[in-house]
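WARN no homologs supplied; continuing
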Amino acid sequence: MSNLDMIHAAARRLDGHVRRTPLLSSSFLDEIAGRRVLVKPECLQHTGSFKFRGGWSALSALDPDVRARGVIAFSSGNHAQGIALAAQRHDTTAVIIMPSDAPKMKIDNTRALGAEVVLYDRATEDRDVIGDRLSAERNLTLIKPYDEPLVIAGQGTTGLEIAEQAAVEGVTSGDVLVPCGGGGLTSGISLALEGHAPEMQVRPVEPEDFDDVARSLKSGKIERNDRQSGSLCDAIITPACGDLTFPIIKRNCGTGIVVTEEEALRAVALAFARLKIVVEPGGAVALAAALFHGDQINGDAVIAVASGGNIDADVFRMALERYAE
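OK structure emitted
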C-alpha cells in the first residue's frame, strides 16, 4: 500500500526529471465560479499529463537488471506516453497495449516516444490475456496505470506541490478537485494532503455515465461502469476504481462530483481563453466542477487539477467553436 513515505521517496527520484507545475488563476474564472479558483496544470507536464510522474516513479524504482528486460503497460494514451518516455530515458524498451479506438494522437505519440504499440479491440479482445502472453514470452515487467503502489506514489508528488503552493497563496483549507478514472492521481494526492494539508479535502470528479467512483463512495464498495468507451473524456474512463486506490479514496476523499460532457468541453475552451493552456476533456472535468457546480463545493477557494492536455485537434476545435469567449 502506498503511503506518505513512499511519496516522499518518489519525489526524491523524480527530482530533476519532472516538471514542477504552477498554480494558475484568472479573475474571469473566479467570477464564473463565485470563489477563488486555482488550477494545477499537469497538462504542462512531460508527455502532456501527470502520468509521467507515476511512470518515472515506477521505472526508477525497478532493479536495473529487471528494468533492462523491458516493461509492459495497458493504456488508452496518457499512461502509455508516460511509460514510453520514462522507459526511453532509462534506456529500456516498453510495450504498450492500447485500445484501437484510442485517440490517434495518443497512439502516434506513444510510438514516437519509442514504444511498441499493440492495438486491441475493447469489444472482442481481453487486454489482460494479451498482456499475460507478451509478458511471459518476453519476460517483461507490468506497470499498471493506477493500481500500483509506486505509480500512486509518483502521482502523489502532485499533492506535495499543491500543499506547498497553496500555502504560499494563503490557501490552507477547502476542496481539491481531481479528475478521477482508476484513482491513482486522486488517491496519491489525498495521501500527500493528508500528511501536509489535512484541512484540504480531495474530491474526485468524473463525467456523466462513467461515475463509478462517485457511486462507489455512496455504496461503500467498488462499483463498475456499464461501458468502457463512448465519451470525449476518454483519458479517465476505466471499468472501475482500483482495489488499491479505492480504500484510500474511501478513507480520505469527500463525495464525488459528476459533470456533463458539454461542461467539460466548455472548461476546455475557458482554460484556453483565460489561462492559455490546452486541456483535454477528461483533464478538464475538475475545472468544470469548480466553475459550474459551485453548490457542491466547500470554501472560499477551490483547487482544480487539469490532469492532461492530449486532445485531438478536431475535439479542441469543437470546444472552441461551441464555447468561444
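The mean pLDDT is 95.
OK
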